[in-house]
Design goal:
This protein is 7% helix and 50% strand. By secondary structure, it is mainly beta.
Length: 102
């Protein structure tokens, strides 16, 4: 078994940020308490199940925490849902395209 490579940089206090969601990328589940996010990044479908109350009614952005960086990618944490903490690792240039800068 190959040893797991851990990120070179983990943040002690992750930054709280927002990423842009396009129409249709977030869908409230049947029970209303969770929302399913599916976003294509570099042709790959990235998924996250997040608590509905953590998103705006418009579903046009999602809160994330920038948890770390590894080999040109950023590690993003979403709010914890009933299925755990969704985590994405995406290229930094793709992250910069969806980051909402206030």
């Amino acid at each position: 078994m190959t040893p797991r490579k851990w990120p070179k940089l983990w943040y002690d206090e992750p930054d709280c940020l927002k990423i842009r969601l396009e129409p249709g990328e977030a869908r409230i589940s049947i029970l209303d308490h969770d929302t399913i996010i599916v976003k294509k990044i570099n042709g790959k479908a990235m998924e996250a199940l997040v608590p509905t109350h953590s998103l705006p009614e418009s579903l046009d952005w999602a809160p994330v925490q920038l948890a770390g960086r590894h080999e040109g990618c950023v590690i993003l944490y979403f709010p914890v849902s009933n299925e755990g903490r969704p985590t994405w690792m995406i290229p930094e240039d793709e992250f910069n395209k969806i980051l909402i800068r206030d």
